[in-house]
Amino acid sequence: MLYEVLKEIFSLKDAVDVLAVALFIYGVIYFLVVTKGLQILRGIIFIGVFWLFAELLQLSTLSWIFEKLWTVGLFSIVVIFQPEIRKALAKIGERTKVIRFGSVEEKSIERIVRACRFMSDRQIGALIVIERSANVDDIVEGCVYIDATISPEILITIFYPMTPLHDGAVIVKGDRIAYASCVLPLSRTANLPKKYGTRHRAAVGITEESDAVAVVVSEESGEISLAVEGNLERNLDPEILRDRLGELLGLRDEKD
């Protein structure tokens, strides 16, 4: 009896509609939490309540101001969250792809690891970004076009101190060094220890805005780190770095 009543009142289409709205609201809340936008959300709610108060009391001038601020506010939110929105859309695009990301071969990973080992032993600073499914060309700036086969000798030469291209990042696409001396977006996270400077913040920053992975060699300590999805895996030895790159680039199964 109850089932029949509910069936008449609440159709399958209504259920799908409610579920879709619930998922949308959950997605918005999750996005705000991840991007630390809850403070902005509180501000919007406060302005909304104040606007409702103005409407109830028929304060025409204040209502008119809020109507104009609403349009400007929507534009401002898009500008403020532009990096996060771009990253979210890129994630959606990645999930719709059927191709296997990452065309880097095992031999190229081995060459990158060998170069990092050499530079780590000699405390030569380096930043190597390895592109996966999302193109990073619109995120990086000031690059010098290289288009060379990956080799330890070329990577070491690029990052050797006082050379023209050492100050910046190398971008690896597939099995080629595409660019050198690139300027990357810096991370805004406060979680990085103060001992890490611009190079490490750039490594985290590029992985916050794309699905790329970034290998960093510290010129102060020679420590090797790996940035993935906005997180920094620190103090890796070359063997662990080789295994992690193989996992992240789809050349072997990730460990549980």
Can you walk through the features of this model?
The protein is of the alpha+beta class and about 260 residues long. It folds into 2 domains: about 1-95, no CATH class; about 105-250, 3-Layer(aba) Sandwich (YojJ-like (1), CATH 3.40.1700.10. The protein is about 50% helix and about 15% strand. It has helices at about 1-10, 10-35, 40-55, 60-80, 80-95, 105-120, 150-160, 200-210, 240-250, and strands at about 125-130, 145-150, 170-175, 175-180, 215, 225-230, 230-235. The chain has a 7-stranded mixed sheet, sandwiched between helices. The model is unreliable at about 95-100 (pLDDT under 50).
Low-confidence stretches: 94-102
CATH class identity of the largest domain: Alpha Beta
For the record, the CATH architecture of the largest domain stands as: 3-Layer(aba) Sandwich
Assigned CATH superfamily of the largest domain: DNA integrity scanning protein, DisA, N-terminal domain
Q: Roughly what fraction of the amino acids lie in strands?
A: 5-15%
Helicity, in percent?
40-55%
Number of strands: 7
Task: Report the average pLDDT across residues.
Answer: 80
Strand order of the largest sheet: 2-4-3-1-5-6-7
What is the name of the CATH topology of the largest domain?
A: YojJ-like (1
Number of helices: 9
The SSE string, one letter per element, is HHHHHHEEHEEHEEEH
Structural class: alpha+beta
Q: What is the number of domains?
A: 2
Question: What is the terminal separation in angstroms?
Answer: 49 Å
User: Main β-sheet: number of strands, strand sense, barrel status?
Assistant: 7 strands, mixed
Q: Identify the overall geometry.
A: elongated
